[in-house]
Amino acid sequence: MLSQMMIDMVRFSLPKNVFFRYVLIGLLNLTIFYGLYESCYLLTKSWDYGPNVSWAVAWVLGSIFAHLTHRKWTFYTDESVKWTLSAALTIYTIGLIGSSGTFGLFVNFWGFNHRISWAVNSAIWGIIDYIGLHKIAFKHQTDSKSI
Question: Hey, what's the torsion of the CAs at 47, 48, 54, 57, to 10 degrees?
């Protein structure tokens, strides 16, 4: 089902603007990430830090999936897979550390609902990831339409 959905995505024209492509592909990645989060949360919800563990596990698995989709559809690059994967995983590791910290603040320190925290945290760190992926991992050639 997932592979068919990905094949169907190729059949339509993606936006020329790299940020809009990132957002569009990011919605697919976000859906996968959320599914992973909820699946992990079902297994860990009785734990004191179940939401935190679920966030971290989903982030790691989702990052690998996101690298593949962004490499194929978001960023047009001549960089080798070896470079983009290692650079993207470095950026995602920094994101994992930072986003886990902010997620912990939202849920454990401030007592916010874990799903609202998930959404806000995903948006914040999605923008930070975009900057790192665009400028470092994929070294996307910036045109006048991209940000």
Answer: -90
Is residue 70 within a helix (H) or strand (E), and if so which, with residue range?
Answer: none
Is 96 in contact with 121 (CB distance < 8 Å)? no
Cα-based distances in Å from 117 to 31, 100, 102, 141: 16, 11, 9, 33
Rounded Cα distance, 84 and 123, in Å: 22
Q: From CA 147, how far away is CA 139, in angstroms rounded?
A: 13
pLDDT along the chain (147 residues), means of 10: 58 79 93 95 91 91 92 87 92 92 95 94 93 88 48
pTM of the shown model: 0.74
Distance of CA 73 to the CA centre of its chain: 14
